[in-house]
Structures are given as structure tokens and as C-alpha cells.
Design goal:
about 30% helix; 11 helices; 25 strands
Length: about 475
């Protein structure tokens, strides 16, 4: 009987020992720190919609002013230098329907020019010799006489689309200075009315000859083509950054002539695209023809170029690494903590992807995305709307929702900036200096100003972040002789 009791009591002792062992194991495990969660979200695919060359070749429609200012004194000087001596002659008595009339016309003095109501007014002082057949008592005798007269003309001046000059000259009367007479049998007989009729009859030929001379001698195409080709040449803004500004002209505009006292004014606008290039000087061949001329009521005075600043991805990653790697972030009253171990950056279309390596309560990589923009106040490339990438967010919601509620993303967005202001400010300063009374070529002087720097956007290319700002202002080109 005792042996049987002893055997009967053994199982309870074994069960008690197992219970104590299990409790000891449970206590040991409970005293160990919790295991860390390993993150492995899917990386957003790297993708770009814009190349660096496309950004650098972005064109901005602008208008270059070419002011035209012509003093009437210069017009007078030009006309008087070209019109001298004998300017008209009729050496036949039998032409023009047997008119029995010959004439020679000389310039007698200075041709005077004035302008009013969109018309040029010319006063042409002439000395005229005539030989005419005079009928006396049924007999025709030929008499010669000389007289002085001031002819008056008015001319409307227009430019054709092909740059040819078109004038419409009409007679505006005349005034006698010394009246014509002939001597018949010792008596001076005035023949003013006769000569007047002959002048009236020939005024049409005179005005036609004037218009032909204007078309032949007035050339606007040559100086404008010179300005056109000068503007097309790449313009060095900065030797340090090897930066050139280039104008690709497309259209030429002109406003109607304005008459202001003794000055004729107009504005030629060379409308085209401006682009900023860096590196080697672009090769541009001179144009040999001009596009058609377009007459417009007003020429805009806006001139715009793009200034670019570049941050390559390795440089951006270096800046981010110096700012964040080794920094520890704590959450929920220090219950959780993470330390940044590495940072990498790349682009996905319009978003900058931030890959951050973490260790601590959670370990692994996470991905965030934000929209880069140029902050004009701080002159930096900054980020807005920085959020966790979708796959990263889904994993964090299951394993580390505290990170979603924390300040990590907000801190990155606030502190992750890339300075570019010094480059833009330097280029702007050099550009302003280059636009001040700069002689591009002999007789071609450029004057301009930059009124405003306006941010455009930040482009993500396969190699870099490119910040583009618009420099807006006015550009005038003065061409001697125009």
C-alpha cells in the first residue's frame, strides 16, 4: 500500500516542476527588450518627364525695342545732299503732243522739309529756263526766259511688308519768286499764265520722279538686317559661369510714324524667343533676308529671359546627409526612437523622392515624396507637401503608426533646403551690368534693365534639380542711321 501511494503522488510533482520552468521561461522572455520591426517598402520608380537640355533650351517670347528717331533736319540734309544742280530737262520742242516747249530745271537753294498730319511737306526752290514757241501775228517765234519759283509738294510715306518704301507725292501749289517774261519787239511780255499752264501740265511727271527717287534711294532693310543679325549673336553674360543669352528672332513689328515737332518717331519691335545657354558659345550663322514687316498700333516692351541654377543629385544628397544623418527623433514620450543612417534623393516625374535609412524602434528604409519649388524669399530650392510614399505609408500604418503621427516628415520638409540664391543673384548683377550702354557692334548699342525676378518652377531632370527664375525687364537697341 505505501508503494502505491508513492506512485500515485509523482505526477503532481512533475506537473509542478513543469509549471515552475514555464513560468521562469516566460519571465525571462518578458524581461528582454521587444524585437525591432524590419521595414522593406517598395521603392518608387525613378522617372523623368524633362531632360536638362530641354530646360536649358526653354524659350521665352520677348520683344526687343529698336527706337526709330529721325530729325527733320537730318532729312533735309540727306535730301539736299542728293538733289543738286540740274534736276529736270526737256530738250524737245515737239514731244508731248508737239507742245513747242523746252525746259531745264535747277535746284536754286535749300529744300525745306516739314511734317504735319502724317504728311511730309517739301518746299523746293527752283530756277527754270524755258524755250517756247510764241505766236505773234500768225508767225511763231521762239523765245527763251528764266525765272525763279518755289514748288510745294506733300508726301505720304509708308513701308511695305517687303520693307520697300512707298510714297505718294502730290503737288501742293507753287509761288513765283521772279516771274517769266519774253521780249517781243523790245517789249517785255509776261508769260506767267502760259508758263503756269505748262508747269501744271508737268507736275505729275515731277511728283512721279520724286517717288521713284525715294524708292531707289531710301533703304531701311540694310540697317535693320544688321540689327537683326547682331541680336542673333550669343551674348556673353558671365565668363565665370560660361552663360550666354541668345535671341532667336521670329517677327518684326513697326508702329506708324509719329510726327513730334521736328522729329519723326516710330518703334521697330524684334519679337522672338530668348534662351539662356551655358558651356561653349553657340554657333549662329548670319541671316541674309528679313521676315515680312508687320505694322501694329503698339509694340510691347516686355523682355524676359530664364536664369537657371542647378543642384545635382549627389550634391543634394550631401546637403541632406549633413543635415540629418546621425540625428535621432523620439516619439510618444520617448517610447519610440529612430536614427537616420543614410539619405538618397532622386526624381519621379514632378516629385522629389527621399529615401531615408532608419535604425531604432524600426529599422530599414522609408520613402517620402514632395514637390520642389524655388523660394524667392530664402533663395533656396525647398519642398512642399512632403508625404510618405503610398507603399511606405501602408506598411507604417500596420507596424509603426506613431511615425505617421510624428514630426519626422514635417521636420524634413522644413529643414531640407538647397541654396541657389548666390548664383542667381550673381548672374542677375552681371546681366544688369552687361545691359547698360553696351556696344554690341559698330553703330549698334544695347541698353536694358531688369525690373523683376519672378520664380518659375523647379524641374527634375535625370541629373539634377534645375531652378528657373524669369528675369523681366526692357531691352532697347539703338542703330545708327535708323
Amino acid at each position: 500500500m505505501p508503494r502505491n501511494r508513492s506512485l500515485a503522488m509523482e505526477p503532481p510533482r512533475l506537473r509542478l516542476s513543469s509549471f515552475v520552468f514555464l513560468c521562469w521561461i516566460s519571465l525571462l522572455v518578458g524581461c528582454q527588450p521587444p524585437t525591432t520591426n524590419r521595414l522593406n517598402p517598395k521603392a518608387p520608380k525613378e522617372a523623368y518627364t524633362t531632360t536638362e537640355m530641354e530646360v536649358r533650351n526653354e524659350r521665352f517670347l520677348s520683344t526687343v525695342h529698336v527706337p526709330v528717331s529721325i530729325a527733320l533736319n537730318d532729312v533735309e540734309r540727306q535730301i539736299n545732299s542728293q538733289v543738286n544742280g540740274l534736276i529736270y530737262e526737256d530738250n524737245s520742242l515737239t514731244d508731248n503732243g508737239n507742245d513747242q516747249f523746252m525746259a531745264k530745271v535747277w535746284k536754286r537753294g535749300t529744300i525745306l522739309v516739314s511734317a504735319a498730319d502724317s504728311l511730309f511737306h517739301f518746299t523746293v526752290p527752283l530756277k527754270i529756263w524755258v524755250k517756247a514757241g510764241v505766236s505773234v501775228l500768225g508767225f511763231t517765234t521762239y523765245k527763251e526766259t528764266e525765272f525763279d519759283i518755289d514748288l510745294r509738294f506733300k508726301t505720304r510715306f509708308d513701308l511695305e511688308r517687303d520693307w520697300s518704301v512707298h510714297t505718294q507725292t502730290t503737288a501742293d501749289g507753287y509761288g513765283w519768286v521772279r516771274r517769266p517774261t519774253v521780249s517781243v519787239i523790245g517789249v517785255n511780255i509776261p508769260i506767267t499764265s502760259f508758263v503756269g499752264r505748262m508747269i501744271d501740265k508737268n507736275l505729275g511727271s515731277i511728283t512721279k520722279a520724286i517717288d521713284q527717287q525715294v524708292r531707289r534711294n531710301v533703304d531701311l532693310k540694310t540697317p535693320v538686317l544688321r540689327a537683326w543679325n547682331t541680336l542673333r549673336e550669343p551674348y556673353l553674360v558671365s565668363e565665370k559661369y560660361r552663360t550666354y543669352i541668345q535671341v532667336v528672332p521670329k517677327r518684326i513689328l513697326i508702329t506708324p510714324l509719329r510726327f513730334e515737332e521736328r522729329v519723326i518717331r516710330s518703334t521697330i519691335g524684334i519679337e522672338g524667343f530668348t534662351l539662356t545657354t551655358t558651356g561653349a558659345r553657340p554657333d549662329v550663322r548670319p541671316a541674309v533676308v528679313l521676315p515680312d514687316l508687320n505694322v501694329v498700333a503698339q509694340v510691347n516692351d516686355d523682355f524676359k529671359i530664364g536664369l537657371l541654377s542647378e543642384v545635382i543629385y549627389p550634391e543634394a544628397a550631401r546637403i541632406a546627409t549633413e543635415e540629418f544623418v546621425g540625428k535621432t527623433f523620439r516619439f510618444s514620450d520617448d517610447r519610440y526612437a529612430i536614427t537616420v543612417t543614410n539619405i538618397d534623393l532622386y526624381g519621379q516625374n514632378e516629385s522629389l523622392i527621399i529615401k531615408a535609412g532608419l535604425t531604432g524602434t524600426i529599422t530599414g528604409d522609408i520613402y517620402l515624396r514632395g514637390r520642389p519649388y524655388y523660394d524667392a524669399q530664402t533663395q533656396t530650392i525647398s519642398l512642399r507637401d512632403l508625404k510618405y510614399d503610398l507603399d511606405t505609408r501602408n506598411i507604417l500604418q500596420r507596424s509603426a503608426s506613431w511615425l505617421l503621427q510624428g514630426t519626422f516628415a514635417r521636420t524634413l520638409e522644413k529643414q531640407l533646403t538647397f541654396p541657389v540664391g548666390s548664383y542667381i543673384a550673381d548672374i542677375q548683377k552681371q546681366l544688369q551690368q552687361q545691359l547698360r550702354n553696351n556696344q554690341l557692334a559698330k553703330g549698334v548699342v544695347i541698353n536694358g534693365r531688369i525690373d523683376e525676378i519672378r520664380p518659375d518652377q523647379v524641374y527634375l531632370t535625370p541629373t539634377a534639380l534645375l531652378a528657373v527664375v524669369h528675369a523681366q525687364g526692357r531691352l532697347d537697341v539703338k542703330v545708327d542711321g535708323l
